[in-house]
From TrEMBL:
<comment type="pathway">
    <text>Amino-acid biosynthesis; ergothioneine biosynthesis.</text>
</comment>
<comment type="function">
    <text>Catalyzes the synthesis of gamma-glutamylcysteine (gamma-GC). This compound is used as substrate for the biosynthesis of the low-molecular thiol compound ergothioneine.</text>
</comment>
<dbReference type="InterPro" id="IPR017809">
    <property type="entry name" value="EgtA_Actinobacteria"/>
</dbReference>
<dbReference type="GO" id="GO:0004357">
    <property type="term" value="F:glutamate-cysteine ligase activity"/>
</dbReference>
<protein>
    <recommendedName>
        <fullName>Glutamate--cysteine ligase EgtA</fullName>
        <ecNumber>6.3.2.2</ecNumber>
    </recommendedName>
</protein>
<keyword id="KW-0436">Ligase</keyword>
<keyword id="KW-0547">Nucleotide-binding</keyword>
<dbReference type="GO" id="GO:0005524">
    <property type="term" value="F:ATP binding"/>
</dbReference>
<dbReference type="GO" id="GO:0052699">
    <property type="term" value="P:ergothioneine biosynthetic process"/>
</dbReference>
<dbReference type="InterPro" id="IPR006336">
    <property type="entry name" value="GCS2"/>
</dbReference>
<dbReference type="Pfam" id="PF04107">
    <property type="entry name" value="GCS2"/>
</dbReference>
<dbReference type="InterPro" id="IPR014746">
    <property type="entry name" value="Gln_synth/guanido_kin_cat_dom"/>
</dbReference>
<dbReference type="InterPro" id="IPR035434">
    <property type="entry name" value="GCL_bact_plant"/>
</dbReference>
<keyword id="KW-0067">ATP-binding</keyword>
<dbReference type="GO" id="GO:0006750">
    <property type="term" value="P:glutathione biosynthetic process"/>
</dbReference>
<comment type="similarity">
    <text>Belongs to the glutamate--cysteine ligase type 2 family. EgtA subfamily.</text>
</comment>
Length: 421
């Protein structure tokens, strides 16, 4: 395939400086706090045969017939056939949850008409990782992960994981260091609280969040956390330019996988030869192939929460937004979570069985219950009670598996049209 013409390339002499400036300038957007966007992924399930993945033509036939949704969510598909609803940015988490719930009802009805359901779990507990999406991006991603030595984790991440993503305003510039640092500091606590992926590919993994374990097994230059320092925009630029290039797009709409660890900065300066010079469009696309647990995109993408069924995903969305957007709750959460800052692996492996994480979670949930919108307080209170018992949403998955195996675990979290009304 022919390479994209080298137009709008970075000037070689100042390429690195220009790229740093470009990424820094777009990392965080100044403004007030209060807008919330939610993205929820789920595993598509054939109710007549839960052990098999839904074929791509069948998925497309169902979703292509889906009209505009009442809450204006976009519907997209992940490599394993996972369905993602991406809600618009709205004022406050209550509005964002209400819109996404409305869209899920419509989607559930459409899926049910074709004998399908949607399982809201952090990992697929039953089916082996298998890519069904034919897109060139995902084929190239799979080849890149294989070449750099993390094929199994890469394929599992693409095809067997699902998350709840909470998107929040960056806020005023003077508050960026503390805000970004808190978003990272809360990571281990909220991983433990949201943990809903104790099974993968038909077996128990021994981890509370197998989804987070998978992310930890991937290339940390692409998927690891930032440091949460005094200059978060500059730190993101350094992270992005040091990260390896995953693929190079061509003019046929395809993608050529990069089968080595070539940093974008090295492509810019000519130290790495990837067939042509990089353009600004290449830099913008490269940023979409980076998956840290908190990703700056003008706003903050909080990416470390497991997908979980009702009522847990609305509660998790409300807790996350409240602990970062309400100043009193944020101060209390910062104090409660400080002792477990950086405990990403412990949180994924042990969850709330870890005494320090359980204490931190209890403190954070107490802060959230006092500050969440009244309409979501019942869900958040229920989550706080679950945490007080040392449990997370994944406990029900293990109980179902104990009674009926991975099939039962998958079906226990599969929401059909009647179940989401």
């Amino acid at each position: 395939m022919a390479p994209v013409p080298s137009t709008s390339v970075f000037p070689l002499r100042s390429a690195l400086d220009e790229a740093v400036d470009a990424v820094t300038a777009t990392a965080l957007r100044p403004g007030p706090i209060g807008t919330v966007g939610l993205e929820l992924e789920g595993h598509l399930v054939d109710l007549a045969g839960p052990g098999r993945r839904v074929t791509w033509p069948r998925i497309r036939a169902v979703l292509d017939g889906l009209g505009p949704l009442p809450g204006s969510s976009r519907v997209t598909l992940e490599p394993g056939g996972q369905v993602e609803l991406s809600g618009p940015p709205l004022t406050g988490v209550a509005a964002a949850v209400a819109a996404l719930r409305a869209d899920r009802r419509v989607l559930a009805d459409a899926l049910a008409d074709d004998g399908l359901g949607l399982a809201l779990l952090g990992t697929d507990p039953l089916r082996p990782p298998t890519r069904v999406h034919p897109g060139a991006r995902y084929a190239a991603m799979e080849e890149h992960f294989t070449a750099v030595g993390c094929r199994a984790a890469g394929l599992a991440m693409m095809t067997s994981t699902a998350s709840l993503q909470v998107n929040l305003d960056a806020g005023p510039p003077e508050g960026w260091p503390a805000r970004v640092a808190l978003a990272h500091q809360l990571g281990p606590v909220l991983i433990a609280v949201s943990a809903c992926s104790p099974l993968l590919s038909g077996r128990s993994t021994g981890w509370r969040s197998s989804r987070q374990r998978i992310w930890g097994d991937l290339d940390q230059a692409r998927c690891g956390p930032l440091l949460g320092g005094a200059d978060p925009a500059g730190e993101w630029a350094a992270y992005a330019l040091s990260a390896p290039v995953m693929l190079v797009r061509d003019d046929d709409g395809g993608a050529v996988p990069v089968r080595s660890r070539a940093a974008f900065a090295d492509w810019l300066t000519g130290e790495a030869d990837l067939g042509r010079r990089p353009t600004r469009a290449d830099l913008d696309y490269h940023l979409t192939t980076l998956f840290p647990p908190v990703r700056p995109r003008g706003f903050l993408e909080i990416r470390y929460l497991d997908a979980a069924p009702e009522p847990w995903w609305p509660a998790l969305a409300a807790v996350t937004a409240t602990l970062l957007d309400d100043p009193v709750a944020a101060d209390r959460a910062a104090e409660a979570s400080a002792p477990v800052a950086g405990a990403w692996t412990r949180a994924a492996r042990d969850g709330l069985a870890d005494p320090a994480l359980r204490r931190a979670a209890a403190g954070c949930l107490a802060a959230a219950v006092d500050a969440v919108p009244a309409v979501l307080r019942p869900e958040v209170t229920a989550l706080a009670e679950l945490v007080a018992d040392g449990r997370s949403p994944g406990g029900a998955v293990l109980t179902a598996a104990d009674r009926g195996g991975p099939y039962a675990a998958l079906l226990s979290a599969t929401e059909q049209s009647e179940a989401v009304r």
